[in-house]
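Exercise: predict the fold of this chain.
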Amino acid sequence: QVQLVESGGGLVQPGESLRLSCANSGRTFSGYAMGWFRQAPGKEREFVAAIRWGGGNTYYADSVKGRFTISRNNAKTTVYLQMNSLKPEDTAIYYCAARTSPGIILSTSRGYEYDYWGQGTQVTVSS
């Protein structure tokens, strides 16, 4: 059973940082990958970042490359998204998702390719 719970969203000013967390209810995740997606008002959900759970390889959307970092803890129960140099265009609801089996290209992840989703956490970047 995979149950994802996000935390860490909030309101920040441009240029500031936030760290999002997504926990699998304290249980070790043994699937293929976890990812972060976001959806802004009036826009489609878009891929942000993904991490291959076993090897730790990471993948990012061009819009966040160099500013965001995805990582996981050693116990493999939690995935993080460190967001630096935030911009107003980063404002969105952020969702974490889990993919249980291989067979997708993580760098071009699509939402429908993931099996489990968290409830989302709001990130607002505004002065």
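Check your answer against the key: The first strand starts at residue 5 and ends at 7.
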